[in-house]
Design a protein that fits this description.
alpha/beta; two-stranded parallel sheet; 11 helices
């Protein structure tokens, strides 16, 4: 029996769809089971509630751990790992982040590295998925594409390999339903290197209008993020991650996704599904 947390987000929804298609035996710990597809078995409860966790984890063979990234997420995920250990779960799979490192200047990378280390020290079998930039994050540019015909950032002409969240869900399903992934960290990227100028051109071709990428100075980009309502720590993380791309440190493709899935989604595939949102 597989137990899934975070089942209604960008990764969780496609993961649940993949598990349903595979006719896997699984259940979901969910605050609001009404948001789940028909046919999904759910334990209603909050991930922060120990009683709900123990009810969900009883008899489980694998747990998939995914939470939102918030200042208390590392503590919450560590508590979930400890709960799974107490419940006798033999194997936990968690969604981390590309570049997780306790010495990273990026807050998210430090938080995830702390939980990766906690999982490895738990005594359970473990698998860690470390995805890079989600293609779906491009949707945050919908307002500026509609208003200005522009995508804004601070990544210059740096290349990176964006990954479709649906492929992350499919990769997680593969790991949860097959053997041989114990003790492994799978770095997940898309299979094509793109600049933001490439992405703007693809989006423009899709929409039939000019779309440009505007690379802002770091301070201006940070100010725009703060004005959009992001907390200070997250705005700073986006600036730092953008610098990584601009400096050429993200211009690599990891083989794990193709190894796990065979066929992966391109950015054109993403636009086929989501491009209308920008119109």
């Amino acid at each position: 029996m597989i137990v899934v947390t975070g089942a209604t987000g960008k990764v969780g929804e496609p993961l649940v769809a993949e598990l349903l298609a595979a006719k896997a035996q699984f259940r979901v710990l969910a605050r609001d089971p009404r948001k789940l597809p028909a046919g999904v078995t759910a334990v209603q409860g909050d991930l922060g509630d120990e009683a709900a966790r123990q009810k969900a984890f009883a008899g489980a063979t694998k747990v998939f751990l995914l939470t939102n990234s918030t200042p208390d997420s590392a503590a919450l995920q560590n508590a979930v790992i400890d709960s799974a250990k107490r419940a006798g779960v033999p194997h936990l799979v968690r969604l981390s982040v590309l570049g997780a490192d306790e010495k990273s200047p990026v807050t998210l990378a430090r938080w995830h590295a702390q939980t990766d280390a906690h999982l490895k020290a738990s005594g359970m079998k473990w698998t860690i998925l470390q995805p890079g930039y989600f293609m779906q994050n491009s949707l945050s540019a919908v307002p500026t594409v509609k208003k200005d015909g522009a995508i804004y950032g601070n990544q210059g002409t740096g290349k990176f390999a964006p990954i479709d969240a649906r492929d992350i869900g499919a990769a997680a399903a593969k790991v949860l339903t097959s053997a041989g992934h114990e003790g492994q960290t799978h770095v997940l990227t898309g299979q094509e290197l793109l600049t933001n100028q490439d992405i703007a051109a693809k989006l423009g071709a899709r929409l039939g209008k000019a779309v440009k990428y505007v690379s802002l100075p770091d301070d201006a980009f940070r100010g725009a993020l703060l004005q959009a309502g992001l907390p200070d720590w997250l705005a700073q993380d986006y600036v730092l991650m953008g610098q990584t791309v601009a400096q050429g440190h993200a211009a690599s493709i990891a083989p794990a996704l193709k190894t796990l899935l065979g066929k992966t989604r391109s950015y054109d595939d993403f636009l086929q599904a989501y491009g209308q949102a920008f119109a």
